[in-house]
């Protein structure tokens, strides 16, 4: 008979199954976290592996003669050409000579020009200089071009490899730290492309963004938290701010395009406009953080100030605001970090142009760091992929630093009342 | 007394200060007004050229032909259905990936994890939310898409190099922290007494979570999912870099589709005449995007607020 099982026995029988279900459920949770973390690690590793190479650049040691006629013609590349030919006197045919000069970057002449500008007495002198090699040589050195593959499938021919090997054997071809990446502007040639132009664009935009959004955000927060009467109007402002925080960033770009560019006729591609758009975008973040900081200041502080005869404005400006400032700054830094990583609205206002010059003011055409990443990611050259990943590494380093500063600030000024 | 004249000056100064504070709080309102006004204004100009019904219900999107006004067949076609479908497909993929991962991570962190584990894991998950979207876009376009393509080839599937799957997958990773932190909040807001009641009846922890905590937290979780959906729909850089440019009405995640945000970017980047239907179409799309995300956000915030009040 089935009911010989007692009640507790029936429960026991189900228990193993239930405990197994319990264990499984727990495992799902751990698996979910593991998957999310794995994504993060894979993403950072994939970018790190691709980008780390760009911090080095292949350079060639050449003995160059600062020939007076070439300097007069401003033909610096000819100096590079001649010294390459001198290095390989056995190369005679026209096409081979061309191949030979192609080992060097078309920007190698600029290095010489800069040397001459710094020291005009170089005319007629002979010097040994390390000059930038072309991106194909660079990719070969870094293993991105496979020597073993058939000649027709790689961008570096067998002849060139022989020359490169002889240069390596002489100790005249080395991977060196890529300073140009940090000091140069954009370029069509990957070996000459740097992030400094985009970096300056980002700095100018962020400066405008900070100067607008920090005071506006803090003042709005003070009004809403300390002075505003509880009525329909303040409700509208509150709902509005919460919704603005969730508006897609590209919509802010459309606003900037329609209002700042087409209506107010501000210049296209300018960090000024970029900063204004980013300011509107980060404003909700700063307001929300600043209000939280104000709310954290206990009412006893205000009451004490009022008790001493201070007016509301004095209470807020002299007592509440200084105590809430660290919290506001933390929120602002996080908002700035968001603005630094934002690119979609900048695309709308024309900060996606190809700009070689380093921007020097708020109205010079510029791009921003994330937009530069977007532009390079589109370039077909292998060497650009490497630079894109390297630019991402630089961007992430900045973001991590900003967030760490925010965390440290918060820890340092954290107060329990 | 020496107070009187000084006091008058103070009052005036303080009135000015208050005036400035009030003025600055209207900037947020002006921003919204500016967004709505500029989108509406340009969209109305667009709908003057292209009928609203053609835009909302048309099945063909090819704005390129509109560039040459003097040519035959220059009208172009502005049927936005393929764009809406593409946006929904990619967002759906993202949510299908992010919801279970985000939800289970939140459940584990809120109900099982030791405080020290929680203190480590939460900030690490938040890193995912802090990474710029252009980085996700790079990852999707240059790492994930080739992997999927290679993987598909090896099992005989034809995966497009700009597949909806690659963009959706990476977008899913991006919204995991959004779902997990919002769900974490609402799960923590469920009162301990409800759990204790369930334990008292002999339920195991997972049974309590499934039968008591999750049903109680469901409205809040739904609100979080709506917010995540709104983020996915409005996301731009990932799809611009990893999704397709040509419109394609399909539900196959292995094919390339285009989205509303991709089209806004492609229509408006580069030098353009500002009165062609082509550029104005971008504002009409922006208007659709703004209202969709606005409705999602308002509903989501309302649900979450109602839910909080329930347990306060």
TrEMBL record, chain A:
<protein>
    <recommendedName>
        <fullName>Phosphate transport system permease protein PstA</fullName>
    </recommendedName>
</protein>
<dbReference type="InterPro" id="IPR005672">
    <property type="entry name" value="Phosphate_PstA"/>
</dbReference>
<feature type="domain" description="ABC transmembrane type-1">
    <location>
        <begin position="199"/>
        <end position="406"/>
    </location>
</feature>
<dbReference type="InterPro" id="IPR000515">
    <property type="entry name" value="MetI-like"/>
</dbReference>
<dbReference type="Pfam" id="PF11812">
    <property type="entry name" value="DUF3333"/>
</dbReference>
<dbReference type="GO" id="GO:0035435">
    <property type="term" value="P:phosphate ion transmembrane transport"/>
</dbReference>
<feature type="transmembrane region" description="Helical">
    <location>
        <begin position="389"/>
        <end position="409"/>
    </location>
</feature>
<comment type="similarity">
    <text>Belongs to the binding-protein-dependent transport system permease family. CysTW subfamily.</text>
</comment>
<keyword id="KW-1003">Cell membrane</keyword>
<keyword id="KW-0472">Membrane</keyword>
<dbReference type="InterPro" id="IPR024573">
    <property type="entry name" value="DUF3333"/>
</dbReference>
<dbReference type="InterPro" id="IPR035906">
    <property type="entry name" value="MetI-like_sf"/>
</dbReference>
<feature type="transmembrane region" description="Helical">
    <location>
        <begin position="316"/>
        <end position="337"/>
    </location>
</feature>
<dbReference type="Pfam" id="PF00528">
    <property type="entry name" value="BPD_transp_1"/>
</dbReference>
<dbReference type="GO" id="GO:0005315">
    <property type="term" value="F:phosphate transmembrane transporter activity"/>
</dbReference>
<keyword id="KW-1133">Transmembrane helix</keyword>
<feature type="transmembrane region" description="Helical">
    <location>
        <begin position="27"/>
        <end position="49"/>
    </location>
</feature>
<keyword id="KW-0812">Transmembrane</keyword>
<dbReference type="GO" id="GO:0005886">
    <property type="term" value="C:plasma membrane"/>
</dbReference>
<keyword id="KW-0813">Transport</keyword>
<feature type="transmembrane region" description="Helical">
    <location>
        <begin position="272"/>
        <end position="294"/>
    </location>
</feature>
<feature type="transmembrane region" description="Helical">
    <location>
        <begin position="195"/>
        <end position="224"/>
    </location>
</feature>
From TrEMBL, chain B:
<dbReference type="InterPro" id="IPR011864">
    <property type="entry name" value="Phosphate_PstC"/>
</dbReference>
<feature type="transmembrane region" description="Helical">
    <location>
        <begin position="208"/>
        <end position="229"/>
    </location>
</feature>
<feature type="transmembrane region" description="Helical">
    <location>
        <begin position="83"/>
        <end position="112"/>
    </location>
</feature>
<feature type="transmembrane region" description="Helical">
    <location>
        <begin position="20"/>
        <end position="41"/>
    </location>
</feature>
<keyword id="KW-1003">Cell membrane</keyword>
<comment type="function">
    <text>Part of the binding-protein-dependent transport system for phosphate; probably responsible for the translocation of the substrate across the membrane.</text>
</comment>
<feature type="transmembrane region" description="Helical">
    <location>
        <begin position="280"/>
        <end position="304"/>
    </location>
</feature>
<dbReference type="GO" id="GO:0006817">
    <property type="term" value="P:phosphate ion transport"/>
</dbReference>
<dbReference type="GO" id="GO:0005886">
    <property type="term" value="C:plasma membrane"/>
</dbReference>
<keyword id="KW-1133">Transmembrane helix</keyword>
<feature type="domain" description="ABC transmembrane type-1">
    <location>
        <begin position="84"/>
        <end position="300"/>
    </location>
</feature>
<dbReference type="GO" id="GO:0005315">
    <property type="term" value="F:phosphate transmembrane transporter activity"/>
</dbReference>
<feature type="transmembrane region" description="Helical">
    <location>
        <begin position="165"/>
        <end position="187"/>
    </location>
</feature>
<comment type="similarity">
    <text>Belongs to the binding-protein-dependent transport system permease family. CysTW subfamily.</text>
</comment>
<keyword id="KW-0812">Transmembrane</keyword>
<keyword id="KW-0997">Cell inner membrane</keyword>
<dbReference type="InterPro" id="IPR035906">
    <property type="entry name" value="MetI-like_sf"/>
</dbReference>
<dbReference type="InterPro" id="IPR000515">
    <property type="entry name" value="MetI-like"/>
</dbReference>
<dbReference type="Pfam" id="PF00528">
    <property type="entry name" value="BPD_transp_1"/>
</dbReference>
<keyword id="KW-0813">Transport</keyword>
<feature type="transmembrane region" description="Helical">
    <location>
        <begin position="124"/>
        <end position="145"/>
    </location>
</feature>
<keyword id="KW-0472">Membrane</keyword>
